[in-house]
Design goal:
8-stranded mixed beta sheet; globular; Aminopeptidase; alpha+beta
């Protein structure tokens, strides 16, 4: 079952990162990473071709209160985002007794390959399981997005099924992979769909 999560007053710190609510002052940083071709496209949205697009997205992040700004710990510069979203598992009877949220994330291209996203996702999972008592997190990625798949698997998610994801902003379908991580479950707690 779905729940509403308000991340606007939460700050999560890791060794190299700080996850916090987005603020209006983050516009230039958001545009800096979201305007790079290939960053958004791997997550199902087109890169931002104007700062006005980033301004609209930032407004949504601030109003909906369910997305963290991923910041470098040393200077609070925003290098990505990580949000709580409605999960496909809420439509699956196998998970009807669990509170479930989807984790979605994006990271600036110049920050790829440094292990920052597993660090951020792991911290959010810890917060969600231990502080919010969420029953499970789901995550998904486009099949060709190997970087995202590696993050998901490093964080302990278990593969459930292939599916088709319609990226409305890109107006195209992608084959995707769906994963779940159940609170306290370990590897045996997931339910794999049959072929």
């Amino acid at each position: 079952m779905d729940i509403k999560i308000d991340a606007s007053k939460v700050v999560i710190k890791t060794e190299r990162l700080k996850l916090r609510a987005f603020a209006e002052a983050d516009l230039d940083d958001l545009y800096a990473y979201a305007s790079v071709p290939g960053v958004g496209e791997m997550a199902g949205w087109p890169h931002h071709e104007s700062i006005g697009i980033s301004e609209g997205v930032l407004r949504i992040f601030i109003e909906e209160k369910n997305v963290f700004a991923i910041c470098r710990a040393e200077d609070d510069r925003v290098i990505g985002s990580l949000g709580f979203h409605y999960s496909w598992a809420n439509e699956d009877d196998r998970y009807k007794d669990l509170t479930v949220k989807e984790i979605g994330y994006v990271l600036s291209k110049d920050s790829w390959g440094r292990g920052l996203m597993p660090e951020a996702v792991g911290a959010v999972i810890d917060y969600g399981f231990n502080e919010l008592k969420i029953g499970a997190f789901t995550c998904g990625c486009i099949v060709k997005n190997n970087q995202s798949r590696r993050v998901i698997e490093k964080c302990g998610f278990q593969f459930i099924s292939y599916g088709v994801y319609y990226a409305k902003q890109l107006q195209r379908h992608f084959k995707d992979m769906k994963y779940i991580l159940i609170n306290g479950g370990g590897p045996a707690a997931f339910i794999r769909s049959r072929p």
